[in-house]
């Protein structure tokens, strides 16, 4: 029984049995002696331990298939809300969506009912506290100096070196007067949260004076504004009583000066359009006031077109990008969608700034719109200035070279009408008799230069995606001109090549019959008059068998062996007949 593996129980049973076995060894004084006397006890205890652990975990670990199916159906019904939620020991409902590995208690807690106590903090140290020091508190004040007290003030809670009072000329040790009371000394054992709480011990009442100061300033401002507005009303009423006539300017400013006292007092009604938002605080920004600029009388954008298939409205961002009324006259509608704002004003400039930053980064510049916006904006500004300068320089260069037709400068007569005062006389054939021929302007490139006896320039002829010379229709740049004879020769060569191609295609269509040639046994063609001698063929077969036996067993080979290089047709036929063909499916049955 000792040392045998334990079957039928899990690892927890094995661990418990091993622990009990070691205790029994120490009890009976030795391994071998215990083995002789307590084998029966071991069997009994093993069975009892395994039964206890199996009973403890049977309700959790071992379930039949039907019970497991019912349990899964109940869990699904609880998640869907069709069945009531499970209740723990304290009567609280357990969320059915909590995973099983969190809701199920460990086996060693022996939980009889479902509970989430094992997930809560069930160990709490009563010594921990969240209280703080009583600042400035005093305890006992002596009437005379005590031994061991502070030599400066006379308090027992500190010494002279750590005394916080003003150093006296003669301390309380020598005068015995003005003995300071003892400070209240406290020690706390804080928990993890108490040590890291920044506001532990903070008194909110200490900030009350700051609030009172700001409230007094706001109250004084409101009072001053009310007095100024009432003063203007009194001045206006006095002027009207004296003159009895109200000017046009006073009528225009009447709404500005008229202030209702009830509205002045009701400050909450004056700020009805304020929207409080967090701006630049630890939670997202300092608390500031942002006014809602939309006029309440305007029609909401999602009510402009009630068609379901019209522009989409996003209620979360309050945006409608497309035009809700695309068929309406642009001069009459006041809202054309949010996309109109994206392509107008500073939005378009910002978009071009982003595009310029991306293109500059692709070209190797170390610029990033989000990381360094000022640098990107300055770079874009310099780019626009340089672009305008380059554009202006290019324009000036073109105008200097070709002139400006939009100016008021008069062109020369010879350029305007193509005439001049030079007299040139021609004959009937068009030859010049008197005067000088007008020279045509030429470009900076060389013109009308003919090489290699050509009469036209390169590029004057085009055929089959190739440039050439028109005079000889050649496509080789540095070729020599062959004239009309070369053209005729090229055409004849092309016709001949086409005829050869057609003849070759015609011959390939009719395949020539191939004669099958029989090969002799030694590889040459079999002559028509070849006749094998039957006797010589039988001898050759015997020789071939002997040669094969000698190859298998070299001990049968003779010492004085004569080799004959002459091969007869019978020998080749015998070799062919005895040869094993690798592709023959019956080769294994030949020998």
Automatic annotation (TrEMBL):
Say where the protein is mainly found: nucleus
Q: Which InterPro entries does UniProt cross-reference here?
A: Slu7_dom (IPR021715), Splicing_factor_SLU7 (IPR039974)
Compositional bias ranges of the Acidic residues kind: 245-258
Q: Which GO terms describe its biological process?
A: mRNA splicing, via spliceosome
Identify the keywords attached in UniProt to this record, alphabetized: mRNA processing, mRNA splicing, Nucleus, Spliceosome
Q: Domain Pre-mRNA-splicing factor SLU7 spans what residues?
A: 190-460
Its domain of life? Eukaryota
Entry keyword annotation includes Calcium = no
Q: Which GO terms describe its cellular component?
A: spliceosomal complex
Q: Where is this region: Disordered?
A: 231-262, 543-591
On subunit structure and binding partners, the annotation says: Associated with the spliceosome.
Q: What does this protein do?
A: Involved in pre-mRNA splicing.
Q: What is this protein called?
A: Pre-mRNA-splicing factor SLU7
From the broadest rank down, the organism's phylogenetic lineage runs: Eukaryota, Viridiplantae, Streptophyta, Embryophyta, Tracheophyta
């Amino acid at each position: 029984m000792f040392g045998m593996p334990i079957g039928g129980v899990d690892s927890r049973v094995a661990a418990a049995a091993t622990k009990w076995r070691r205790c029994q060894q120490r009890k009976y004084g030795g391994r071998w002696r215990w083995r002789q006397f307590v084998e029966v006890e071991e069997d009994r205890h093993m069975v009892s331990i395994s039964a206890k652990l199996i009973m403890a975990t049977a309700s959790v670990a071992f379930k039949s298939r039907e019970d497991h199916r019912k349990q899964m159906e109940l869990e699904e019904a609880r998640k869907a809300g069709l069945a009531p939620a499970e209740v723990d020991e304290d009567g609280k409902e357990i969320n059915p969506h909590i995973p099983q590995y969190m809701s199920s208690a460990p086996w060693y807690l022996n939980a009889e009912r479902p509970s989430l106590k094992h997930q809560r903090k069930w160990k709490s140290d009563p010594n921990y506290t969240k209280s703080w020091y009583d600042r400035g508190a005093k305890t006992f004040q002596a009437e005379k100096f005590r031994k061991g007290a502070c030599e400066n003030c006379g308090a027992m809670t500190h010494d002279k070196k750590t005394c916080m009072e003003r150093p006296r000329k003669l301390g309380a040790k020598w005068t015995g007067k003005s003995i300071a009371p003892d400070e209240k000394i406290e020690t706390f054992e804080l928990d993890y949260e108490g040590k890291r709480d920044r506001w532990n011990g903070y008194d909110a009442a200490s900030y009350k004076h700051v609030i009172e100061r700001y409230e007094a300033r706001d109250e004084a401002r409101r009072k001053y504004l009310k007095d100024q507005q009432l003063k203007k009303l009194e001045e206006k009423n006095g002027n009207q009583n004296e003159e009895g006539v109200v000017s046009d300017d006073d009528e225009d400013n009447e709404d500005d000066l008229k202030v209702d006292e009830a509205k002045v007092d009701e400050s909450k009604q004056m700020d009805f359009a304020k929207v409080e938002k967090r701006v630049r605080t630890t939670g997202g920004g300092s608390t500031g006031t942002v006014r809602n600029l939309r006029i309440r009388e305007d029609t909401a954008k999602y009510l402009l077109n009630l068609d379901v298939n019209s522009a989409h409205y996003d209620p979360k961002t309050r945006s409608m990008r497309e035009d809700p009324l695309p068929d309406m006259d642009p001069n009459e509608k006041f809202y054309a969608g949010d996309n109109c704002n994206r392509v107008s004003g500073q939005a378009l400039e910002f978009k071009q700034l982003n595009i310029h930053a991306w293109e500059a980064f692709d070209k190797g510049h170390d610029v990033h719109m989000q990381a360094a916006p000022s640098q990107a904006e300055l770079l874009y500004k310099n780019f626009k200035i340089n672009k305008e300068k380059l554009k202006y320089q290019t324009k000036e260069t073109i105008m200097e070279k070709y002139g400006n037709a939009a100016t008021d400068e008069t062109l020369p007569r010879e350029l305007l009408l193509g005439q001049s005062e030079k007299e040139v006389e021609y004959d009937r054939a068009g030859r010049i008799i008197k005067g000088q021929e007008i020279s045509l302007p030429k470009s900076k490139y060389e013109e009308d230069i003919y090489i290699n006896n050509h009469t036209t320039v390169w590029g004057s002829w085009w055929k089959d995606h190739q440039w050439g010379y028109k005079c000889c229709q050649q496509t080789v740049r540095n070729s020599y001109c062959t004239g009309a004879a070369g053209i005729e020769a090229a055409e004849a060569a092309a016709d001949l090549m086409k005829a050869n191609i057609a003849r070759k295609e015609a011959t390939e269509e009719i395949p020539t019959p191939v004669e099958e040639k029989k090969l002799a046994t030694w590889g040459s063609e079999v002559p028509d008059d070849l006749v094998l001698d039957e006797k010589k063929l039988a001898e050759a077969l015997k020789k071939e068998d002997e040669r094969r036996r000698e190859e298998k067993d070299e001990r049968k080979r003779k010492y004085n062996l004569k080799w004959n290089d002459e091969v007869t047709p019978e020998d080749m036929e015998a070799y062919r007949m005895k040869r094993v063909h690798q592709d023959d499916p019956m080769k294994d049955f030949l020998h």
